[in-house]
Specification:
The chain has 363 residues and is α/β, with parallel strands linked by helices. 44% of the residues lie in helices and 19% in strands. Helix 6 (185-193) packs across helix 8. Bound molecules: adenosine monophosphate and magnesium ion. Its cofactor is Fe(2+).
């Protein structure tokens, strides 16, 4: 295949990011990777404020793209395509990044690839050396998403289950808010849990032992809120114990749901599989260790991207864009920003012309 060099742009939540990636017959190479987080701007509100996020993207996106291009020592003319997140996400932020991508594509006469952010996460384990080969079972756990997806090929995804209420990252963030730990909550809950007694609070494990691989965290969240109400004034030890008890419940839930998802995956793809975790929550070491142990138990290889590619980044967007470009796909400049965009629809968008796209591909 001809090597493809693609600029990726990510702005769907609270990270402004740009990266340059080259895809050749040896796989993807991240040439530059710049992420500018907005945590400090959102911290006073203990959560992401969409308007603040959109304005912050406007302020720093140009500089972020310039930094990624400078790090890569490339000019726009040397790129083969521009990939920008087109959804799902906070609509103001998505519009900022997508419009910037369209402007660069138009000015430099390059193809635009409108990337589904979830496809970026789904393919992110392939960024690392020796990354996951298809097919694999993906647990996507982030601030806005919580689902199992069979990743069969680029653009070919089957959703097995998803959350009925909160995303897992959201549950971590809400507990942190309840305990006044700060924002973003996930890493703070994880480190508080290290000093806590995971058996002190008997918390529910919603859907444990049930069929399927959907998630629910509302009951767990409510039980945490009740415990806080009962305690009244909380000591640091109370907080650590609650975090540890919460995380223990999460680990049991994730293991139980993953076992069921593996059964669904096995029934189609045979027993020896690959389990991949991606999204911000996949940065949690306790969750990674539990999934790794489960993988050993079930004969699955467990793969998680390096931490920097678990949370939102543009390298994964550039990869999804380059993979689509390789298959001969690009998008019209009228492509809309989408606040909601399920990944399974990705398959519908790609499948009808999938074979034609392959034939037409340059590789
Ligand atoms: P993303 O939505 O992929 O940008 O990831 C952000 C989400 O991941 C937020 O909800 C964070 O609280 C969560 N997160 C990040 N690090 C951790 C961690 N170590 N443990 C649990 N959740 C985490
Ligand atoms: Mg984020």
């Amino acid at each position: 295949m001809n090597p493809l060099t693609v600029l990726g742009i990510e702005s769907s939540c609270d990270e402004t990011a740009a990266a340059v990636l080259r895809l050749d017959e040896n796989g993807p190479h991240v040439i530059s990777d710049v992420v500018r987080g907005q945590a400090a701007q959102h911290a006073p509100y203990r959560g992401v404020v969409p308007e603040i996020a959109a304005r912050a993207h406007v302020e720093v996106l140009d500089g972020t793209i310039a930094a990624a291009m400078a790090d890569a020592r490339l000019g726009f003319a040397e790129l083969d395509g521009i990939a920008a997140t087109a959804g799902p996400g906070l609509i103001g932020g998505v519009m900022v990044g997508l419009l910037a991508g369209k402007a660069i594509a138009l000015a430099h006469d390059k193809p635009l690839i409108a990337v589904n952010h979830l496809e970026g996460h789904a393919l992110s384990p392939r960024l690392a050396q020796g990354g996951a080969t298809f097919p694999y079972l993906l647990l996507l756990v982030s601030g806005g998403h919580c689902q199992f997806i069979a990743v069969l090929d680029v653009g070919v995804y089957r959703r097995y289950g998803s959350t009925m209420d909160d995303a897992l990252g959201e549950a971590f963030d809400k507990l942190a808010k309840l305990l006044n730990l700060g924002f973003p909550g996930g890493p703070l809950v994880e480190s508080a849990a290290e000093n806590g007694d995971s058996k002190r609070f008997a918390l529910p494990r919603p859907l444990l032992g049930r069929e399927g691989c959907d998630f629910s965290f509302a009951g767990l969240k409510t039980a945490c809120a009740r415990a806080v109400e009962r305690l009244g004034v909380l000591t640091d030890q109370d907080k650590a114990d609650l975090c540890a008890s919460f995380q223990a419940a999460v680990l049991d839930i994730v293991e139980d749901r993953t076992r069921n998802a593996m059964r669904m995956f096995d029934s189609v793809w045979g027993a020896k599989g690959r389990l991949v975790a991606a999204g911000g929550v996949a940065a949690n070491q306790a969750i990674r260790s539990r999934l790794e142990a489960l993988g050993e138990d079930r004969g699955y290889d467990f793969i998680a991207p390096p931490l920097r590619w678990c949370t939102d980044n543009a390298a994964m967007i550039a990869l999804a864009g380059a993979e689509r470009l390789r298959l001969g796909f690009s998008d019209d400049l009228s492509f809309p920003a989408r606040p909601r965009w399920p990944l399974d629809e990705e398959a519908a968008r790609l499948r009808p012309s999938h074979q034609a796209g392959r034939k037409g591909a340059k590789a």
